[in-house]
Specification:
Elements (H helix, E strand, L loop, with lengths): L1 H13 L6 H7 L5 H18 L3 E6 L2 E6 L4 H8 L8 H13 L2 E2 H8 L4 H9 L3 E6 L7 E5 L1 H6 L11 H8 L1
């Protein structure tokens, strides 16, 4: 069992995206889904107890090592680069897409009250928003939604973890 834990830890470490249970089972099919979920829980607990510089967190439907928030300033110094910033217009557009998806650009423009083309283009380039299809109406407008990277960047397991409007109002007060 210790060897399987070590292998799973190595897989999570080497994975460029959060490692899903399904992907881990492709590499270790002999473990089985229930046992794999148990191994992941054990790894999460083990890293929590250790209280080191990083933790194993469930994010975007998988598991990924993340720097503990208390150490982000030192990591930023090491990286010596500013994190990619989003303009207020981009953040507003991203919020509209996150909360109302799937939706077309005309709906984003209507909700924001301005043309969201520039902000939407930037969000697509940053891979925070993606094209999910085309609406079956005349003109076949493009439908937008958020990406797994959006979940990763905002440290969310899934869209259900987005704060509700009531929670947001409570934060402002």
């Amino acid at each position: 069992m210790e060897e399987k834990l070590a292998i799973l830890e190595a897989l999570i470490f080497a994975s460029e995206v959060p490692l899903t249970v399904e992907r881990a089972l492709e590499v270790l099919p002999e473990v089985g889904k229930t046992a794999m979920e148990g191994l992941l829980e054990e790894l999460v607990r083990s890293h929590e107890q250790r209280s080191g510089g990083f933790a194993l967190q469930e994010v975007a439907g998988g598991f990924q090592f993340r720097t503990r928030s208390g150490f982000s300033a030192w990591v930023a110094k090491l990286k010596a680069s500013r994190p990619a910033m989003l303009s207020p217009a981009a953040l507003e557009t991203l919020a509209v897409v996150a909360y109302r998806q799937p939706l077309v650009k005309a709906e984003i423009d209507r909700i924001r009250g301005v043309d969201a083309s520039g902000a939407l283009k930037g969000l697509l380039e940053k891979k925070l928003v993606r094209i999910v299809g085309r609406k079956d109406v005349p003109g076949k407008p493009i439908i937008y939604g958020t990406t797994k990277k959006f979940l990763e960047v905002f440290n969310l397991r899934n869209l259900a973890e987005l704060p509700t409007l009531r929670e947001l109002k409570d934060l402002q007060e």
